[in-house]
Amino acid sequence: MDSSSPEPSLYTVKALFILDNDGNRLLSKYYDHEFYPSMKDQKNFEKKVFNKTHKADNEIAFLEGMTIVYKNSIDLFFYVVGSAQENELMLMSVLNCLFESLSQIFRKNVERRGLLDNMEGVFLIVDEIIDGGVILESDPQQVLQKVNYRADENPLSEQSVAQHISEKLALTTNVLQSAKEQIKWSILK
């Protein structure tokens, strides 16, 4: 294998953020802390991304060695960021899953007001799709089922939040156990 090509990694997503139509941050999650470690660095990066993309008709941008997929809806801009070598389709699947999940919760109108009114639920959805930069889910139906969303109820009850946290802990434990097994078997080879 060519030593200059990066090793494949499960850590696909470097960052995910949602900005309003003025470029102001509404939600952001950075998964790689070497990638813009301070809040100031993150906001500067977001501003550069917004300035490059808010008038463009594309879905993909390249900036500062990063691959960025994006989508806008009414008064929001959604961004998913990966490394330069990352597969755009993988990043786009994350973006589409997030957008479709929110579309179902907001009954098709994904806009700033609904996002701000349901921020806790938005964070739960993001956490179901991505954990620490690893893509967990790309099917909006599965995401909504996991956060216990019902269209005829309030989007998220306290019980569903507690259930989400306990399922997240169980999943993290399973992922860690699986990683330990893989490391053990790779050492024993």
From TrEMBL:
Q: Name one GO cellular component term.
A: Golgi membrane
Record-annotated AP complex mu/sigma subunit domain positions: 12-150
Q: What are the alphabetically sorted keywords of the record?
A: Cytoplasm, Cytoplasmic vesicle, ER-Golgi transport, Golgi apparatus, Membrane, Protein transport, Transport
Q: Where is it located?
A: Cytoplasm; Golgi apparatus membrane; Cytoplasmic vesicle, COPI-coated vesicle membrane
**What GO biological process terms are annotated to this protein in UniProt?**
intra-Golgi vesicle-mediated transport; intracellular protein transport; retrograde vesicle-mediated transport, Golgi to endoplasmic reticulum
Quaternary structure (record): Oligomeric complex that consists of at least the alpha, beta, beta', gamma, delta, epsilon and zeta subunits.
PANTHER family, alphabetized:
COATOMER SUBUNIT ZETA-2 (PTHR11043:SF4), ZETA-COAT PROTEIN (PTHR11043)
Q: What is this protein called?
A: Coatomer subunit zeta
